[in-house]
Amino acid sequence: AIIYDSMTLTSPDQPEYEMKVSGADTADGASLEKPLMEESVSTLGLKHAFAKSHGRRRTTSWQDLPQKMRGITMRELDDFVEAHREWITGKLWRCSACGLSTGSQTGPCFECNGTEGKLQMKNLYEVCKHLIKPICEEEKVSYVEYLAQRRCQEEGESKGVAVNTFVSHWWGEEFANFHAALSRYSENRCEAAISNPTIWIFVVTWVVASVILAAMWCIVSPPPTVSYSPSKSPQAIQILWNTWKEDYKRLSAMSIISDMVAFAVASFVYWRSRRILQRRRSQEWSFWICAFANNQFAIDHAIGSNDNLSTSSFATALEADTLMEVAVIVDDDVVVYRRIWCAFELFYARVVLPSKKDISPRVVLINKGGLISDGDAPRTTVRKLEEAMRSVKTAEAKASSESDLRAIMEEMRREEATPEMLDELLRLISQGGVGAVKLRRKGLELMFLFSLSVLLCTLGVTEFVLFRRSLYFNVGWIFLPVSFLMVGLMHRSCQRMLAKFGLCAQRTPVFYVLRQRSMQVALLVNSPILIAVICSLPDEA
Protein backbone atom coordinates (compact mmCIF):
# COMPACT_ATOMS: atom_id res chain seq x y z
CA ALA A 1 0.00 0.00 0.00
CA ILE A 2 1.09 3.56 -0.65
CA ILE A 3 1.21 5.76 2.43
CA TYR A 4 0.66 9.49 1.90
CA ASP A 5 1.49 12.06 4.51
CA SER A 6 2.55 15.65 4.96
CA MET A 7 6.20 16.28 5.53
CA THR A 8 8.66 19.12 5.91
CA LEU A 9 11.17 19.14 3.06
CA THR A 10 14.52 20.82 2.66
CA SER A 11 15.85 21.39 -0.84
CA PRO A 12 19.54 20.72 -1.56
CA ASP A 13 21.49 23.98 -1.55
CA GLN A 14 18.33 26.02 -0.99
CA PRO A 15 17.33 28.04 2.07
CA GLU A 16 15.49 26.03 4.66
CA TYR A 17 11.77 26.34 4.25
CA GLU A 18 8.68 24.36 5.04
CA MET A 19 6.32 23.11 2.41
CA LYS A 20 3.33 20.81 2.76
CA VAL A 21 3.13 18.28 -0.05
CA SER A 22 1.43 15.02 -0.71
CA GLY A 23 4.01 12.40 -1.43
CA ALA A 24 4.64 8.72 -1.21
CA ASP A 25 6.66 7.21 1.58
CA THR A 26 10.31 7.65 0.59
CA ALA A 27 11.10 4.07 1.48
CA ASP A 28 9.03 3.11 -1.52
CA GLY A 29 11.83 4.26 -3.79
CA ALA A 30 14.65 2.55 -1.95
CA SER A 31 14.83 -0.34 -4.40
CA LEU A 32 15.38 1.90 -7.41
CA GLU A 33 18.74 0.93 -8.89
CA LYS A 34 18.84 2.38 -12.39
CA PRO A 35 16.22 4.43 -14.22
CA LEU A 36 14.65 2.83 -17.25
CA MET A 37 15.81 4.63 -20.39
CA GLU A 38 13.66 3.00 -23.02
CA GLU A 39 10.22 3.81 -21.63
CA SER A 40 8.66 6.74 -23.45
CA VAL A 41 7.44 9.71 -21.49
CA SER A 42 4.31 9.71 -23.57
CA THR A 43 2.78 7.89 -20.62
CA LEU A 44 3.22 11.07 -18.59
CA GLY A 45 0.20 12.53 -20.32
CA LEU A 46 -1.92 9.64 -19.04
CA LYS A 47 -0.56 9.69 -15.50
CA HIS A 48 -0.33 13.37 -14.62
CA ALA A 49 -3.98 13.52 -13.45
CA PHE A 50 -3.08 11.12 -10.65
CA ALA A 51 0.06 13.15 -9.93
CA LYS A 52 -1.95 16.37 -9.60
CA SER A 53 -4.24 15.05 -6.91
CA HIS A 54 -2.01 12.59 -5.05
CA GLY A 55 1.64 13.11 -6.02
CA ARG A 56 3.83 10.40 -7.58
CA ARG A 57 6.22 7.99 -6.02
CA ARG A 58 9.93 8.37 -6.68
CA THR A 59 10.09 5.12 -8.65
CA THR A 60 7.19 6.14 -10.88
CA SER A 61 8.64 9.57 -11.55
CA TRP A 62 12.10 8.26 -12.40
CA GLN A 63 10.78 5.46 -14.59
CA ASP A 64 8.61 7.87 -16.55
CA LEU A 65 11.56 10.18 -17.11
CA PRO A 66 14.99 8.93 -15.95
CA GLN A 67 17.52 11.43 -14.64
CA LYS A 68 19.80 10.70 -17.57
CA MET A 69 17.02 11.97 -19.87
CA ARG A 70 16.21 15.10 -17.88
CA GLY A 71 18.27 17.48 -19.94
CA ILE A 72 17.12 20.97 -20.82
CA THR A 73 18.46 22.33 -24.12
CA MET A 74 20.03 25.73 -24.56
CA ARG A 75 17.12 26.66 -26.82
CA GLU A 76 14.59 25.83 -24.07
CA LEU A 77 16.65 27.72 -21.49
CA ASP A 78 16.83 30.74 -23.82
CA ASP A 79 13.06 30.65 -24.28
CA PHE A 80 12.56 30.50 -20.51
CA VAL A 81 14.82 33.53 -19.96
CA GLU A 82 13.43 35.57 -22.85
CA ALA A 83 9.86 35.05 -21.61
CA HIS A 84 10.76 36.55 -18.22
CA ARG A 85 13.83 38.67 -19.00
CA GLU A 86 12.47 41.92 -17.65
CA TRP A 87 11.68 40.34 -14.27
CA ILE A 88 14.90 38.28 -14.12
CA THR A 89 17.17 41.23 -14.87
CA GLY A 90 15.35 43.63 -12.55
CA LYS A 91 17.62 44.69 -9.68
CA LEU A 92 16.59 44.72 -6.02
CA TRP A 93 18.50 45.42 -2.82
CA ARG A 94 19.95 42.22 -1.33
CA CYS A 95 21.31 41.91 2.21
CA SER A 96 24.98 40.85 2.34
CA ALA A 97 24.47 39.14 5.73
CA CYS A 98 21.56 36.78 5.03
CA GLY A 99 21.28 36.99 1.24
CA LEU A 100 17.58 37.87 1.28
CA SER A 101 16.04 40.58 -0.88
CA THR A 102 13.84 43.33 0.51
CA GLY A 103 11.68 43.46 -2.60
CA SER A 104 12.71 47.08 -3.14
CA GLN A 105 15.84 48.96 -4.14
CA THR A 106 16.75 50.06 -0.62
CA GLY A 107 17.56 48.47 2.76
CA PRO A 108 17.63 47.58 5.56
CA CYS A 109 16.86 43.85 5.60
CA PHE A 110 13.49 42.94 7.13
CA GLU A 111 14.80 39.55 8.27
CA CYS A 112 18.06 40.38 10.06
CA ASN A 113 17.99 44.20 10.08
CA GLY A 114 21.26 44.23 8.13
CA THR A 115 22.20 47.52 6.52
CA GLU A 116 24.97 46.34 4.19
CA GLY A 117 23.86 45.12 0.79
CA LYS A 118 23.84 45.83 -2.92
CA LEU A 119 21.54 45.88 -5.92
CA GLN A 120 21.41 42.52 -7.66
CA MET A 121 19.36 40.72 -10.29
CA LYS A 122 17.18 37.74 -9.35
CA ASN A 123 18.97 34.55 -8.31
CA LEU A 124 17.89 30.93 -8.70
CA TYR A 125 16.21 30.86 -5.31
CA GLU A 126 13.81 33.53 -6.54
CA VAL A 127 13.50 32.10 -10.04
CA CYS A 128 12.53 28.74 -8.57
CA LYS A 129 9.99 30.25 -6.18
CA HIS A 130 8.36 32.77 -8.52
CA LEU A 131 8.74 31.15 -11.96
CA ILE A 132 9.53 27.42 -11.96
CA LYS A 133 7.10 26.36 -9.22
CA PRO A 134 4.09 28.39 -10.44
CA ILE A 135 4.58 27.02 -13.98
CA CYS A 136 4.68 23.41 -12.75
CA GLU A 137 2.16 23.72 -9.92
CA GLU A 138 -0.82 22.23 -11.75
CA GLU A 139 0.99 18.99 -12.66
CA LYS A 140 3.23 18.94 -9.56
CA VAL A 141 6.23 17.85 -11.66
CA SER A 142 9.71 19.15 -12.44
CA TYR A 143 10.16 21.78 -15.15
CA VAL A 144 11.86 19.22 -17.40
CA GLU A 145 8.90 16.87 -16.99
CA TYR A 146 6.61 19.80 -17.77
CA LEU A 147 8.51 20.37 -21.04
CA ALA A 148 8.36 16.63 -21.81
CA GLN A 149 4.59 16.67 -21.40
CA ARG A 150 4.32 19.60 -23.81
CA ARG A 151 6.54 17.84 -26.36
CA CYS A 152 4.38 14.75 -25.96
CA GLN A 153 1.26 16.76 -26.74
CA GLU A 154 2.85 18.40 -29.78
CA GLU A 155 4.84 15.48 -31.21
CA GLY A 156 2.92 12.49 -29.86
CA GLU A 157 5.92 10.78 -28.26
CA SER A 158 9.16 11.81 -26.61
CA LYS A 159 11.93 10.17 -24.64
CA GLY A 160 13.15 13.34 -23.04
CA VAL A 161 16.52 14.95 -23.74
CA ALA A 162 19.77 13.09 -23.08
CA VAL A 163 22.13 14.98 -20.78
CA ASN A 164 25.36 16.34 -22.29
CA THR A 165 26.65 18.40 -19.35
CA PHE A 166 26.02 18.27 -15.60
CA VAL A 167 25.92 21.77 -14.09
CA SER A 168 27.34 22.35 -10.60
CA HIS A 169 26.60 25.83 -9.26
CA TRP A 170 25.50 28.01 -6.37
CA TRP A 171 21.85 29.03 -6.30
CA GLY A 172 22.66 32.50 -4.97
CA GLU A 173 24.33 33.62 -8.21
CA GLU A 174 22.38 36.05 -10.37
CA PHE A 175 20.35 33.95 -12.80
CA ALA A 176 21.13 36.20 -15.78
CA ASN A 177 24.85 35.52 -15.24
CA PHE A 178 24.11 31.81 -14.81
CA HIS A 179 22.32 31.79 -18.17
CA ALA A 180 25.11 33.78 -19.85
CA ALA A 181 27.71 31.29 -18.57
CA LEU A 182 25.83 28.30 -20.01
CA SER A 183 25.25 30.11 -23.29
CA ARG A 184 28.96 30.86 -23.65
CA TYR A 185 29.83 27.30 -22.62
CA SER A 186 27.52 25.68 -25.19
CA GLU A 187 29.01 27.84 -27.94
CA ASN A 188 32.54 26.90 -26.91
CA ARG A 189 31.70 23.21 -26.77
CA CYS A 190 30.29 23.30 -30.28
CA GLU A 191 33.62 24.71 -31.44
CA ALA A 192 35.05 21.20 -31.82
CA ALA A 193 32.77 20.56 -34.79
CA ILE A 194 33.79 23.80 -36.51
CA SER A 195 37.47 24.07 -35.49
CA ASN A 196 38.92 23.16 -38.90
CA PRO A 197 36.67 25.49 -40.93
CA THR A 198 37.30 28.48 -38.67
CA ILE A 199 41.06 27.86 -38.58
CA TRP A 200 41.24 27.89 -42.36
CA ILE A 201 39.03 30.98 -42.46
CA PHE A 202 41.70 32.55 -40.22
CA VAL A 203 44.54 31.46 -42.54
CA VAL A 204 42.85 32.46 -45.81
CA THR A 205 41.88 35.86 -44.41
CA TRP A 206 45.46 36.41 -43.28
CA VAL A 207 46.78 35.58 -46.75
CA VAL A 208 44.21 37.77 -48.53
CA ALA A 209 44.96 40.69 -46.21
CA SER A 210 48.69 40.25 -46.88
CA VAL A 211 48.13 40.25 -50.66
CA ILE A 212 46.03 43.42 -50.49
CA LEU A 213 48.59 45.22 -48.33
CA ALA A 214 51.46 44.10 -50.56
CA ALA A 215 49.62 45.41 -53.64
CA MET A 216 49.02 48.72 -51.89
CA TRP A 217 52.78 49.12 -51.34
CA CYS A 218 53.57 48.76 -55.01
CA ILE A 219 50.88 51.27 -55.99
CA VAL A 220 51.22 53.88 -53.26
CA SER A 221 54.97 53.77 -52.63
CA PRO A 222 56.97 52.90 -55.78
CA PRO A 223 60.67 52.10 -55.17
CA PRO A 224 63.35 54.76 -55.78
CA THR A 225 66.20 54.16 -58.20
CA VAL A 226 69.74 53.84 -56.94
CA SER A 227 72.60 54.06 -59.44
CA TYR A 228 75.92 52.56 -58.66
CA SER A 229 78.64 50.38 -60.17
CA PRO A 230 79.16 47.10 -58.29
CA SER A 231 82.66 46.73 -59.87
CA LYS A 232 84.04 49.46 -57.62
CA SER A 233 84.82 47.25 -54.62
CA PRO A 234 86.16 50.03 -52.35
CA GLN A 235 82.67 51.56 -52.41
CA ALA A 236 80.85 48.25 -51.71
CA ILE A 237 80.30 48.93 -48.01
CA GLN A 238 78.93 52.42 -48.73
CA ILE A 239 76.66 51.13 -51.51
CA LEU A 240 75.29 48.40 -49.27
CA TRP A 241 74.64 50.87 -46.49
CA ASN A 242 72.88 53.37 -48.79
CA THR A 243 70.73 50.65 -50.33
CA TRP A 244 69.74 49.35 -46.90
CA LYS A 245 69.13 52.82 -45.56
CA GLU A 246 67.00 54.07 -48.44
CA ASP A 247 65.11 50.98 -49.55
CA TYR A 248 65.48 47.79 -47.63
CA LYS A 249 65.08 49.37 -44.24
CA ARG A 250 61.83 50.99 -45.35
CA LEU A 251 60.56 47.81 -47.00
CA SER A 252 61.46 45.66 -44.00
CA ALA A 253 59.63 47.99 -41.64
CA MET A 254 56.58 48.07 -43.90
CA SER A 255 56.55 44.27 -44.19
CA ILE A 256 56.50 43.88 -40.40
CA ILE A 257 53.73 46.48 -40.03
CA SER A 258 51.70 44.79 -42.77
CA ASP A 259 52.15 41.43 -41.08
CA MET A 260 50.74 42.87 -37.86
CA VAL A 261 47.77 44.49 -39.63
CA ALA A 262 46.97 41.33 -41.59
CA PHE A 263 47.15 39.27 -38.40
CA ALA A 264 44.74 41.63 -36.63
CA VAL A 265 42.25 41.52 -39.51
CA ALA A 266 42.41 37.71 -39.69
CA SER A 267 41.92 37.40 -35.92
CA PHE A 268 38.80 39.58 -36.05
CA VAL A 269 37.28 37.62 -38.96
CA TYR A 270 38.13 34.33 -37.24
CA TRP A 271 36.43 35.46 -34.03
CA ARG A 272 33.28 36.65 -35.81
CA SER A 273 32.94 33.54 -37.99
CA ARG A 274 33.42 31.28 -35.00
CA ARG A 275 30.72 33.11 -33.03
CA ILE A 276 28.23 32.82 -35.92
CA LEU A 277 28.85 29.11 -36.50
CA GLN A 278 28.87 28.32 -32.78
CA ARG A 279 25.54 30.05 -32.20
CA ARG A 280 23.81 27.91 -34.80
CA ARG A 281 24.99 24.61 -33.32
CA SER A 282 24.83 25.42 -29.62
CA GLN A 283 21.03 25.61 -29.31
CA GLU A 284 20.63 21.83 -28.98
CA TRP A 285 23.29 21.34 -26.28
CA SER A 286 21.62 19.95 -23.14
CA PHE A 287 22.26 20.45 -19.42
CA TRP A 288 21.23 18.72 -16.20
CA ILE A 289 20.30 21.57 -13.84
CA CYS A 290 18.94 20.57 -10.44
CA ALA A 291 16.34 23.35 -10.25
CA PHE A 292 14.82 22.25 -13.56
CA ALA A 293 15.41 18.48 -13.33
CA ASN A 294 14.22 17.91 -9.73
CA ASN A 295 10.58 18.05 -8.75
CA GLN A 296 10.36 21.12 -6.50
CA PHE A 297 7.11 19.79 -5.04
CA ALA A 298 8.77 16.52 -3.95
CA ILE A 299 12.37 17.34 -3.07
CA ASP A 300 12.64 14.04 -1.20
CA HIS A 301 12.77 12.36 -4.63
CA ALA A 302 16.15 14.01 -5.23
CA ILE A 303 17.73 12.80 -2.00
CA GLY A 304 19.11 9.27 -1.88
CA SER A 305 17.17 6.60 -0.07
CA ASN A 306 18.10 6.34 3.62
CA ASP A 307 20.59 9.23 3.13
CA ASN A 308 22.51 7.16 0.58
CA LEU A 309 23.73 9.90 -1.76
CA SER A 310 24.86 7.41 -4.40
CA THR A 311 21.16 6.92 -5.26
CA SER A 312 20.37 10.64 -5.32
CA SER A 313 19.30 12.41 -8.49
CA PHE A 314 22.68 14.19 -8.59
CA ALA A 315 24.69 10.95 -8.53
CA THR A 316 22.35 9.22 -10.97
CA ALA A 317 22.61 12.08 -13.47
CA LEU A 318 26.41 11.99 -13.22
CA GLU A 319 26.32 8.33 -14.26
CA ALA A 320 24.49 9.09 -17.54
CA ASP A 321 26.21 7.38 -20.46
CA THR A 322 25.72 10.48 -22.63
CA LEU A 323 27.38 12.81 -20.10
CA MET A 324 30.49 14.50 -21.46
CA GLU A 325 31.49 17.00 -18.79
CA VAL A 326 30.72 18.51 -15.42
CA ALA A 327 30.57 22.31 -15.70
CA VAL A 328 31.26 24.24 -12.48
CA ILE A 329 29.95 27.80 -12.67
CA VAL A 330 32.33 30.11 -10.83
CA ASP A 331 30.31 33.06 -9.59
CA ASP A 332 31.77 36.57 -9.14
CA ASP A 333 32.60 35.98 -5.46
CA VAL A 334 33.67 32.32 -5.95
CA VAL A 335 31.08 31.22 -3.38
CA VAL A 336 30.75 27.89 -5.21
CA TYR A 337 33.85 26.66 -3.35
CA ARG A 338 32.13 27.29 -0.03
CA ARG A 339 29.01 25.22 -0.77
CA ILE A 340 29.15 21.60 0.37
CA TRP A 341 26.82 20.31 -2.36
CA CYS A 342 29.05 21.76 -5.09
CA ALA A 343 32.11 20.23 -3.43
CA PHE A 344 30.35 16.86 -3.17
CA GLU A 345 29.41 16.87 -6.87
CA LEU A 346 33.05 17.41 -7.81
CA PHE A 347 34.15 14.75 -5.35
CA TYR A 348 31.66 12.25 -6.75
CA ALA A 349 32.65 13.00 -10.36
CA ARG A 350 36.43 12.89 -9.81
CA VAL A 351 36.79 10.26 -7.08
CA VAL A 352 33.78 7.96 -6.78
CA LEU A 353 32.78 7.49 -10.42
CA PRO A 354 36.28 6.61 -11.71
CA SER A 355 36.87 4.06 -8.91
CA LYS A 356 33.45 2.40 -8.80
CA LYS A 357 31.77 2.99 -12.14
CA ASP A 358 34.79 3.35 -14.44
CA ILE A 359 33.40 6.72 -15.56
CA SER A 360 35.62 9.80 -15.72
CA PRO A 361 33.73 12.91 -16.83
CA ARG A 362 35.91 15.96 -17.35
CA VAL A 363 35.38 18.79 -14.87
CA VAL A 364 35.58 22.31 -16.31
CA LEU A 365 35.26 25.77 -14.76
CA ILE A 366 33.06 28.33 -16.49
CA ASN A 367 31.55 31.75 -15.84
CA LYS A 368 29.70 34.47 -17.74
CA GLY A 369 33.00 35.63 -19.27
CA GLY A 370 33.93 32.31 -20.83
CA LEU A 371 35.28 28.81 -20.37
CA ILE A 372 38.02 29.14 -17.75
CA SER A 373 39.36 25.60 -18.15
CA ASP A 374 40.05 26.26 -21.83
CA GLY A 375 41.66 29.63 -21.16
CA ASP A 376 38.70 31.79 -22.14
CA ALA A 377 38.23 34.06 -19.12
CA PRO A 378 38.87 37.67 -18.02
CA ARG A 379 41.75 38.63 -15.72
CA THR A 380 39.45 39.49 -12.79
CA THR A 381 38.09 35.96 -12.71
CA VAL A 382 41.60 34.51 -12.69
CA ARG A 383 42.64 36.67 -9.74
CA LYS A 384 39.56 35.74 -7.71
CA LEU A 385 40.06 32.07 -8.53
CA GLU A 386 43.67 32.19 -7.36
CA GLU A 387 42.56 33.81 -4.09
CA ALA A 388 39.88 31.16 -3.57
CA MET A 389 42.45 28.40 -4.15
CA ARG A 390 44.57 29.68 -1.29
CA SER A 391 41.68 29.87 1.19
CA VAL A 392 39.45 26.94 0.24
CA LYS A 393 38.48 24.74 3.23
CA THR A 394 35.80 22.13 2.60
CA ALA A 395 35.54 21.43 6.32
CA GLU A 396 34.03 24.92 6.68
CA ALA A 397 31.71 24.64 3.67
CA LYS A 398 28.05 25.40 4.28
CA ALA A 399 24.78 23.77 3.32
CA SER A 400 21.22 24.99 3.61
CA SER A 401 20.41 21.87 5.65
CA GLU A 402 22.46 20.35 8.46
CA SER A 403 21.13 16.92 7.46
CA ASP A 404 22.58 17.39 3.97
CA LEU A 405 25.92 18.37 5.45
CA ARG A 406 25.98 15.30 7.72
CA ALA A 407 24.98 12.99 4.86
CA ILE A 408 27.76 14.32 2.60
CA MET A 409 30.41 14.04 5.31
CA GLU A 410 29.24 10.49 6.04
CA GLU A 411 29.47 9.59 2.34
CA MET A 412 33.02 10.94 2.24
CA ARG A 413 33.96 8.87 5.30
CA ARG A 414 32.61 5.76 3.59
CA GLU A 415 34.87 6.53 0.66
CA GLU A 416 37.80 7.05 3.07
CA ALA A 417 38.11 10.68 1.97
CA THR A 418 38.87 13.68 4.14
CA PRO A 419 38.05 17.37 3.70
CA GLU A 420 41.76 17.99 3.11
CA MET A 421 41.73 15.56 0.17
CA LEU A 422 38.74 17.37 -1.29
CA ASP A 423 40.53 20.71 -0.80
CA GLU A 424 43.47 19.41 -2.78
CA LEU A 425 41.14 18.16 -5.52
CA LEU A 426 39.53 21.59 -5.79
CA ARG A 427 42.93 23.25 -5.97
CA LEU A 428 44.03 20.94 -8.79
CA ILE A 429 40.90 21.71 -10.80
CA SER A 430 41.35 25.44 -10.22
CA GLN A 431 45.05 25.39 -11.07
CA GLY A 432 44.21 23.76 -14.39
CA GLY A 433 41.78 26.58 -15.14
CA VAL A 434 44.22 29.33 -14.16
CA GLY A 435 46.97 27.71 -16.20
CA ALA A 436 44.68 27.44 -19.22
CA VAL A 437 43.87 31.16 -19.08
CA LYS A 438 47.58 32.02 -19.10
CA LEU A 439 48.16 29.51 -21.89
CA ARG A 440 45.46 31.04 -24.07
CA ARG A 441 46.95 34.49 -23.71
CA LYS A 442 50.39 33.23 -24.70
CA GLY A 443 48.93 31.42 -27.70
CA LEU A 444 48.26 34.52 -29.80
CA GLU A 445 51.62 35.99 -28.83
CA LEU A 446 53.39 32.81 -29.94
CA MET A 447 51.43 32.73 -33.18
CA PHE A 448 52.47 36.26 -34.07
CA LEU A 449 56.08 35.78 -32.98
CA PHE A 450 56.31 32.58 -35.02
CA SER A 451 55.06 34.36 -38.14
CA LEU A 452 57.41 37.28 -37.46
CA SER A 453 60.39 34.96 -37.00
CA VAL A 454 59.68 33.22 -40.32
CA LEU A 455 59.34 36.63 -41.97
CA LEU A 456 62.71 37.74 -40.61
CA CYS A 457 64.26 34.46 -41.70
CA THR A 458 62.97 34.88 -45.26
CA LEU A 459 64.02 38.53 -45.36
CA GLY A 460 67.49 37.46 -44.29
CA VAL A 461 67.69 34.83 -47.05
CA THR A 462 66.39 37.35 -49.60
CA GLU A 463 68.96 39.94 -48.62
CA PHE A 464 71.75 37.37 -48.64
CA VAL A 465 70.86 36.41 -52.23
CA LEU A 466 70.46 39.99 -53.45
CA PHE A 467 73.62 41.30 -51.82
CA ARG A 468 75.84 38.24 -52.00
CA ARG A 469 78.64 40.41 -53.43
CA SER A 470 79.04 41.97 -49.96
CA LEU A 471 79.06 38.65 -48.15
CA TYR A 472 81.01 39.63 -45.04
CA PHE A 473 78.98 42.73 -44.35
CA ASN A 474 75.60 41.32 -45.25
CA VAL A 475 72.84 42.27 -42.81
CA GLY A 476 71.30 38.87 -43.57
CA TRP A 477 73.94 37.33 -41.32
CA ILE A 478 72.17 39.06 -38.45
CA PHE A 479 68.65 38.20 -39.58
CA LEU A 480 69.29 34.52 -40.25
CA PRO A 481 70.66 33.34 -36.88
CA VAL A 482 68.16 35.49 -34.94
CA SER A 483 65.20 34.21 -36.95
CA PHE A 484 66.33 30.57 -36.70
CA LEU A 485 66.73 31.00 -32.95
CA MET A 486 63.21 32.46 -32.71
CA VAL A 487 61.73 29.58 -34.70
CA GLY A 488 63.45 27.08 -32.42
CA LEU A 489 62.26 28.84 -29.29
CA MET A 490 58.68 28.98 -30.62
CA HIS A 491 58.71 25.26 -31.38
CA ARG A 492 60.16 24.43 -27.97
CA SER A 493 57.62 26.64 -26.17
CA CYS A 494 54.70 25.00 -27.98
CA GLN A 495 55.94 21.51 -27.14
CA ARG A 496 56.36 22.38 -23.46
CA MET A 497 52.88 23.88 -23.26
CA LEU A 498 51.35 20.88 -25.02
CA ALA A 499 53.08 18.58 -22.56
CA LYS A 500 52.10 20.67 -19.54
CA PHE A 501 48.49 21.46 -20.37
CA GLY A 502 47.59 18.43 -22.48
CA LEU A 503 44.02 18.49 -23.78
CA CYS A 504 43.57 22.14 -22.94
CA ALA A 505 46.41 23.17 -25.28
CA GLN A 506 45.22 20.76 -27.95
CA ARG A 507 41.76 22.33 -27.87
CA THR A 508 43.18 25.83 -28.32
CA PRO A 509 43.04 26.61 -32.08
CA VAL A 510 46.25 28.65 -32.03
CA PHE A 511 48.22 25.68 -30.73
CA TYR A 512 46.57 23.38 -33.24
CA VAL A 513 47.90 25.63 -36.02
CA LEU A 514 51.39 25.81 -34.50
CA ARG A 515 51.53 22.06 -33.95
CA GLN A 516 50.01 20.81 -37.21
CA ARG A 517 50.28 23.53 -39.85
CA SER A 518 52.87 26.03 -38.62
CA MET A 519 55.20 26.13 -41.64
CA GLN A 520 52.36 26.07 -44.19
CA VAL A 521 50.60 28.95 -42.46
CA ALA A 522 53.80 30.99 -42.12
CA LEU A 523 54.70 30.54 -45.80
CA LEU A 524 51.18 31.33 -47.00
CA VAL A 525 50.99 34.46 -44.89
CA ASN A 526 54.43 35.84 -45.63
CA SER A 527 54.79 34.97 -49.34
CA PRO A 528 52.80 37.97 -50.67
CA ILE A 529 54.78 40.38 -48.48
CA LEU A 530 58.12 38.90 -49.51
CA ILE A 531 57.20 39.03 -53.20
CA ALA A 532 56.28 42.69 -52.78
CA VAL A 533 59.61 43.34 -51.05
CA ILE A 534 61.60 41.72 -53.86
CA CYS A 535 59.61 43.52 -56.56
CA SER A 536 60.02 46.85 -54.80
CA LEU A 537 63.83 46.68 -54.61
CA PRO A 538 65.81 48.78 -57.14
CA ASP A 539 66.50 46.99 -60.41
CA GLU A 540 70.19 47.85 -60.16
CA ALA A 541 70.41 45.88 -56.90
Automatic annotation (TrEMBL):
The chain crosses the membrane at residues 199-220, 251-271, 446-465, 471-490. The keyword Transmembrane applies. It comes from Noctiluca scintillans (Sea sparkle). Keywords: Membrane, Transmembrane, Transmembrane helix. This is Uncharacterized protein.
